[in-house]
Write a structure and sequence with these properties.
The protein contains nine helices and no strands. With 253 residues, the protein is mainly α. The chain is globular and about 60 Å long. The chain starts with a helix and ends with a helix.
């Protein structure tokens, strides 16, 4: 646990985005600690989401807490699993030479940032859980927190790619070192502009799929007037439901 806490702290403080490290690739981003940290953080926020059902439902609240704790980290990694083939195809079409392991490391770092910000909103979610019984308000509050954490992780990823590109260009002024033709390509040979275009296209797809994935995995909060269920019936979609929730919250209908 101490190791992944250290890795998480180093990531938050910018220690993982130092140019001298990124010039050599992504080996310094240890995948296992990042995944463990992100899963634990997702579980923490899931517990905070499920508390609303425990406060408002006559029964099934404990099951909703367990369900939400599992579903929040699953939401991010299932979305990545579904969108990874498109990321691979985009990289091939753009001629970006980046390995699957490098992609996993970079995306795991961005997901970890997303979930650490989301987990930091956990106490706020818990506070409003015990101070309101408005289901529509809690849904919109959680959508807001997911949106804000997603934007912050996007900014992190974009900064990461820019620093990586700068680190790639820095050694160009020095004498080129002979390289083993069988060695994995370093980032300075990848083409930073193409990498940013690649991730820009993929992030749009990831956001849309992630939004709908949250709808498929619902409920996360648990409506007061409905019994606990692991999953709801497949109907409508995330975007239409948000419009209906805003309408209900504002009392327009």
């Amino acid at each position: 646990m101490r190791k992944w806490l250290k890795e998480l702290d180093d990531l938050l403080r910018g220690g993982k985005t130092r140019p001298e490290l990124l010039a050599e690739g992504t080996a310094h981003l240890e995948l296992r600690p990042l995944v463990i940290a992100s899963v634990v953080l997702g579980v923490i926020y899931g517990v905070c989401m499920g508390l609303f059902a425990a406060m408002t439902q006559a029964s099934g609240g404990a099951w909703q807490i367990l369900s939400s704790a599992i579903k929040v980290p699953a939401l991010f990694y299932l979305t990545f699993l579904i969108t990874f083939p498109s990321l691979y195809v985009f990289s091939a079409l753009l001629g970006v030479r980046i390995s699957a392991l490098d992609v996993l490391r970079v995306v795991a770092a961005a997901i970890t940032i997303n979930l650490v910000v989301l987990a930091s909103f956990g106490p706020i979610t818990a506070f409003f859980t015990v101070s309101t019984d408005s289901y529509a308000f809690m849904k919109l509050l959680n959508v807001l927190f997911f949106g804000v954490s997603g934007i912050i992780s996007l900014v992190f990823l974009w900064k990461f790619l820019k620093v990586m590109d700068a680190a790639r260009e820095a050694p160009a002024a020095r004498e080129e070192e002979p390289q083993d033709e069988h060695a994995p390509p370093k980032f300075r040979a990848l083409g930073g502009e193409r990498i940013r275009k690649l991730f820009k296209m993929w992030l749009i797809i990831y956001a849309i799929v992630g939004a709908q994935m949250s709808w498929v995995l619902r409920p996360f909060i648990g409506a007061p007037n409905l019994p606990f269920e692991w999953f709801r019936d497949r109907q409508s979609n995330f975007f239409l439901d948000i419009l209906r929730t805003i309408d209900a919250f504002l009392g327009l209908s």
